[in-house]
Write a structure and sequence with these properties.
By secondary structure, the chain is of the alpha+beta class. It has a domain of 86 residues. Helices cover 31% and strands 30% of the residues. It has three helices and six strands. The protein has a three-stranded antiparallel sheet with strand order 2-1-3, with helices on one face. A three-stranded antiparallel sheet has the order 5-4-6. The protein is flat.
Length: 128
Amino acid sequence: MISIRTRRAAAGALAVATIAAGVSTVTAPAAGAAPVDYGAIAVSRSGSVGKSWDYASAGAARQAALARCGYGTCKVLASFSNGCGAVAATPRMFGGGAARDLRTAERRAIAKSGGGIVRTWVCTSRHL
């Protein structure tokens, strides 16, 4: 029979080995109770950018991005929750994209801009 002291020592050693190996386990919140973070990217005609992330509502994230953009011509081109947004540009137009992960958001922004290059991006803390 293994003593309680031996079991505790073995459990501690396993925990140290797991952390050292870079493995972690996270328990997800119950379905329907998962927290949501919102973000947005606004851009003006002149190219000024305003970004927001980790806001409690979509409206607050949009307003923050517009305020940070700083011009009356600013428009929100990407709005997202628990994900990422990106804006790409060509010499003639801007395009915004959003997705759960950054690479997909960038691809969508490039497609919407007609093949431009990514100018800016931002992700919420809960993105993939």
